[in-house]
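Budget justification, computational time. The allocation requested in the original proposal was used primarily to generate structure tokens for proteins on the priority list. As evidence of use, we reproduce two of the resulting records. The first is shown immediately below.
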Amino acid sequence: MKMSRPILILAVLTVLAVLYLFWRDHNAEKPARVSARRQVATSIVPVMGPAIAEAVEGAAQAPAATNLFGAQTWAPPPPPPPTPEQLAEEARKNPPRAPPLPFAIVSTWRESGTTYIGMSANGQDVIVCRSCSLPGSIRQGQTLLGIYRLDSVTDRTLVFTFLPLKQKQELPLGEIP
């Protein structure tokens, strides 16, 4: 294979330059933590001039301000948070209400003129009566689950008060045999 003389000279000079740079990198003491951008900036000075080198070095020292490849979405931006006036208006329109009663009627029966109501309250079974001496029964004025007070017992409903909000709630009994 025959090469022209100028190409052969360029190839030899390129190989020599590569060998020299390789030798210089492995024999020189490396400074502690010099950034690659600063090395580029100092190597550009003889070629491009000091003004461009200062710009490159300044860019190397400047912190990254924006994320060019941040997450993007098609969703619209979230609405702004409500103002205190809007919150007050919403509270005025929709005052807090007691949650639904956590009680379920399990059974009802009458015995010697007294009505007994078997009720399940969050896994606890209790007996409610108007005036009985049954131990463990719940009577008018007593508290259930710490937040409900039994106000009245009628043949058709039990009336409770939700104590944190002082709101009355009724639990229908249905037909008592």
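The second record produced under the same allocation is shown here.
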Amino acid sequence: MGNVVRLPVSVVCDEYQKAKARKRHLSYTPRPRLVRDALSANASARWALMKEWLEKLVEHWNQE
């Protein structure tokens, strides 16, 4: 055990949190328009799936 440095857990946790914060600040932040477009596309896809699911339920109810 030559050059092993023993640090208190609190110091290790603090360094971990600092590194995480630095990484978060350096990450890419999309423009609001891109976020809005992505959410809109996601909502449209979700609505299409829901509509398809509901239509299948209605077909099941209407047994003509």
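A brief technical remark on that second record: The mean pLDDT is 76.
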